Amino acid sequence: MFFLKLSLITWLIAAPGLVVSTENVITCYGSVQRLSCDIGLIRVQSAIYGRTDSSVCNAGRPPSETQNTRCSMKIPLISERCDGQTACEFKTDVLGIPDPCLGTYKYYNTTYNCIQGRIGMICEGSYSTLDCGNDVIQIVSANYGRTDRTTCSEGIENKETEDTNCHAPDTLTSVLTRCNDRKRCILEASNTIFTDPCKGTYKYLAFSYFCLSVETSVTCEHSTAVLTCEAGVLKIHSANYGRTDSTTCAAGRPAHEINKTDCFAGNTLAEVVRRCEGKNSCSVPATNSVFSDPCVGTFKYLTVVYSCAGSDGFDFSQLTNEV
Ligand SMILES: *[C@@H]1O[C@H](CO)[C@@H](O)[C@H](O)[C@H]1NC(C)=O
Ligand SMILES: *[C@@H]1O[C@H](CO)[C@@H](O)[C@H](O)[C@H]1NC(C)=O
Questions:
Q1: Looking at ligand 1, which residue's alpha carbon is closest to its atom 13?
Q2: Which ligand is located closest to the Cα atom of residue 72?
Q3: Which ligand ends up closest to the CA of 108?
Q4: Domains 3-115 and 118-212 agree in fold
Q5: How far apart are CA 46 and CA 251, in angstroms?
Q6: Is the dihedral of CA 149, 152, 157, 162 positive or negative?
Q7: Per-residue model confidence as pLDDT tens digits over 55-89
Q8: Per mean pLDDT, which of 84-88, 169-173, 220-224 is the most reliable?
Q9: Cα separation of 230 and 197, whole Å?
Q10: 215-317: which CATH topology?
C-alpha cells in the first residue's frame, strides 16, 4: 500500500489539555489521503507536498525520481477542508499545482492533532451562543455555506441543498473576530454577516471550537507583572492597562482615583504580546511610561489573560497564522 500512518500518541499522553493524539500521514501522489480522529477533531499542523525523504514512496521508481529531497510546498487547502472534522479524505492528484519539482515523484506529508473540541451548526437565519464559562473560546474552523445535503435540510426544497461545495471565503476570519479569546459570543448564520457564497442554496454555519483554561494576572500601577510558564510558552489572549471596576487595586485609595471604570490603554495587548508572547517568562511594568496614561488621575492596574501553549503539544501559531 502507498499509505503509511504513524501514531505519535506516546509523547502526548501526559498532556492534560487539548491534544488527544498527534498523527502523521504520508500519501504517495495519486492515492487517497484520509485524515481521521477516533476521538476529537482534526487540527492540521502541517501539510506539505513534495519530497524531503528518499526512503518513502519509492517502490518501482527510478533513483532519478526519488533523489531530490529538497522539494516542499505547503498545501493550505488541507487545513481549510479538514480542520474541525472527525474524518476527511481527498484524492491527492487534484492538489499541488504548480508542480514544485518536475521529474521528482512526490508525496503528501500531513501532520495533524486530534483535539478535544465541540462542533456546532447553525442553520441560515438562526443564532447560537457559544459559552466557555470561565475559560476562553478558541475557534478551530468555520464555514458558512453547505458541504452536505442533510444538515439543515428539514422541509427545504431539494434544489436548495444540491450544492455541497459552498464555502464563504472569509468565514473563519469573521468568526475569529467575534468569538476568539472571549468567554462567550453569539454567532448568527446570515448573508448579512458573511457574503453569500452560493445564491439559491440554503446554507448553514458549521464551526468547531474548544474551551481553553486561562490564567489572569492582575498588577497594580507602579508594580511589575511577572508571567511564567513552567511548561510551554506564553500565549497572550487579552490585556488591559487601566481600570474596569472600582474594587481591584482599591485599598487605601480615595474615591476619585477608583471611581472611573471605563479606562483602557489601547496599546496594551500589542505591548504585552511584544514583551511576552512565545517566551517562558516575561515582566511588564504596570506604569504610564510603558503604556502612556489612558486616564489621568485614576489609579490603574494591568490585567493580562494568558495561557501556556505548547505544553500539551498544541501549536497555537496555527490558529492565528491561517494561510
Ligand atoms: C513529514 O513532515 C514532518 C514535519 O515537517 C517531518 O518531520 C518529517 O520528516 C516528514 N516525513 C517525511 C517522510 O517526509
Ligand atoms: C468620582 O469621584 C469624584 C470625587 O469623589 C467626583 O468628583 C466625580 O464626579 C466621580 N466620578 C464619577 C465618574 O463618578
A1: 53
A2: 1
A3: 1
A4: yes
A5: 50
A6: negative
A7: 999 999 999 999 999 999 999 889 988 999 999 99
A8: 220-224
A9: 45
A10: Jelly Rolls (2.60.120)
Rounded CA gap, 54 and 73, in Å?
16
**Any ligand 2 atom below 6 A from CB of 254:** no
Rounded distance, CA 165 to CA 70, Å? 34
Q: Give the CATH fold of the 3-115 domain.
A: Jelly Rolls (2.60.120)
Residue reference for cell 491534544: 19
For residue 322, pLDDT beyond 60: no
Q: Spelled out in words, what is the top-level CATH class assigned to the domain 118-212?
A: mainly beta
pLDDT tens-digit readout, 187-204: 999 999 999 999 999 999
Output DSSP code: residue 98. S
Global pTM reads 0.71
Ligand 1 pocket by Cβ (under 6 Å) = 26, 46, 48, 52-53, 56, 109, 111
Specify the 3-state DSSP secondary structure of 218. Answer: strand
Expressed in angstroms and rounded, the spacing between residue 109 Cα and the centre of ligand 1 is: 6
- Return the DSSP state at 173: H
Q: Where are the domains of the chain?
A: 3-115, 118-212, 215-317
Half-sphere exposure of 95 (CA within 13 A, CB side): 28
**Dist CA 207 CA 209 (whole Å):** 7
